[in-house]
Amino acid sequence: MALVLEPILAEGIAQVSYFIGDDSAGCAAVIDPRPDADIYLQKARHYGVTVTHVFETHIHADFMSGARELVARCAGSAKLYVSVEEDATYDFDHESIREGDEFEFGEVKLRAKHTPGHTPEHLSYLISGTHEKEAWGVMTGDSLFVDSIGRPDLLGDEKTDELTRALFNTMRDFFCKLGDHVIIYPCHAAGSACGPDIGDRMSSTIGYEKKHNPFMQIEVYDEFKKAIHDNAPPVPTHYPKMKKLNVEGPKIFGHTPPVRSLTVEEFEDEMNKTDTLIIDARDMLAFGGGHIEGALNMGERPILSVWAGWLIDTDAPILLVLPDNKDLERVVTLLWRTGHTNFKGYLAGNMRSWQESGKPIIKLSQLSVHELNQNKGHYLPLDVRKDKEWQNGHIPDASHIFLGELSDKMSKLDKERNLAVYCASGYRASIAASLLQKKGFKNVNSIPGSFKAWKAAALPIENKTEN
């Protein structure tokens, strides 16, 4: 027997799924798959095994589940298993799991354990050999992370206290009582908003977490509740809709969602329809040099998934402007992970075809940190980073609006003011600047390099919690 256990990281959304099985028995399971499911079939071919089981630890809120997509691609060899603890229901075919259910893959055994708190139905999976009584590992889902813990506030204020108490009990009565040697395999890594300040490592041990994870060290409920409340990151706007979609059952494509190629004329017709949104996936400097009016700049990086989730409704009709035609599948996959599949097409030939057709383009001014510093008072620096980033230091005299809240709070800004938008490195700044420009702000500038460039140039930094 050779154990197969491989974490698979979806960058951007910082989601981790797992491929686990026994290659001598020729069978394997996938836990918490993402929608671009080909990677699991590739792993199955690599290890010479068949995927027979697809498990969900809970109803996900931060990304589109790929469980149904994967089962469909397995063409009858796999079944989908979900928790029905706390009377959880689903609008799609599934196999039900409750605490104590066991599954064997050759010499590998998984045993379900109800670990509520992040969600009511949440399950973790203890890992052991089939002839071993003691687990050596546990798939923790979104209940326990490296250096962190799952958040209990995603089902609304009326459920938060109940789930916080359940999460505290899960920590004290289950995880803290596991052996120090037990390895934890969480569903998220650093960068996810499903828990506060998740650590950089992909796995840990119960012993290490007992010593270093602040949430495992708290033994009094009221202190635990306060720590959870005080450290909770903002709730991304797409989470409630994504949870509903994952209960209903995401659409099965059997491949990457199709997107048709559009001529300049066809693209122009589509963009003039109500509510159609243009996403320009080029680098911020290319976007700044010239783009289609009304486009949002979300560069082709993994983090595109997250900000599309925050800022774009999953039902929105989307047009794409790509860096290159070869980037289509990558961009579509990143959008698919947070539920965006209503694609109306992409511009064939990209911006080159648009500009050669004599169509209008507009610019977004790019302002260096040196120009900003030399013209103090002429520009209002606008910081769109998270609260903690802002509190740890920012450009003097800046205003602060977190990017995820910019659509709701931009009315506080003067549309005639010269704005210099910055973030940590420039990616979020360009999204924010393009959003402001789309909403009619005339004097918007984005700052390439942003706060990293400001610090590298040894320019003055201000520290305070409020503007």
Main sheet strand line-up: 1-2-3-4-5-6
Total number of helices: 17
Specify the CATH homologous superfamily of the largest domain: Ribonuclease Z/Hydroxyacylglutathione hydrolase-like
The biggest sheet amounts to:
6 strands, mixed
CA-atom Rg in angstroms: 24 Å
Q: How would you sum up the global shape?
A: globular
Total strands: the figure is 24
* Amount of beta strand: 15-25%
Structural class: alpha/beta
**CATH class term of the largest domain:** Alpha Beta
Query: What is the count of distinct domains?
Result: 3
List segments where confidence is low: pLDDT < 50 over at least 5 consecutive residues.
Answer: none
If you consult CATH, what is the topology of the largest domain?
Metallo-beta-lactamase, Chain A
Helix share of residues? 25-40%
CATH architecture of the largest domain: 4-Layer Sandwich
Distance between the termini: 61 Å
**Average pLDDT metric:** 96
Folded structure, characterized:
This protein has 467 residues and is α/β, with parallel strands linked by helices. It folds into three domains: 3-247, 4-Layer Sandwich (Metallo-beta-lactamase, Chain A); 257-356, 3-Layer(aba) Sandwich (Oxidized Rhodanese, domain 1), CATH 3.40.250.10; 365-456, Rhodanese-like domain (Oxidized Rhodanese, domain 1). Helix content is 30%, strand content 21%. The strands form five sheets. The protein has a six-stranded mixed beta sheet with strand order 1-2-3-4-5-6. Strands 7-8-9-10-13-14 form a six-stranded mixed beta sheet. Strand 8 (108-114) and strand 9 form a beta hairpin. The radius of gyration is 24 Å and the shape is globular. The N and C termini lie far apart (61 Å). The relative contact order is 0.09. The model has no long low-confidence stretch (mean pLDDT 96).
